[in-house]
User: What shape does this take?
Amino acid sequence: DRGFLGLGLLFTVIPETIVIFGLVISFILMFAYG
Assistant: This one.
């Protein structure tokens, strides 16, 4: 089922995006206040 595959892909991509986003924010805060 294509819908199930898309949902699985979504749940694979979102955590990676959140982790990368968090790392970027950490670097920005480090440069801003470091």
The two ends are 49 Å apart (CA to CA).
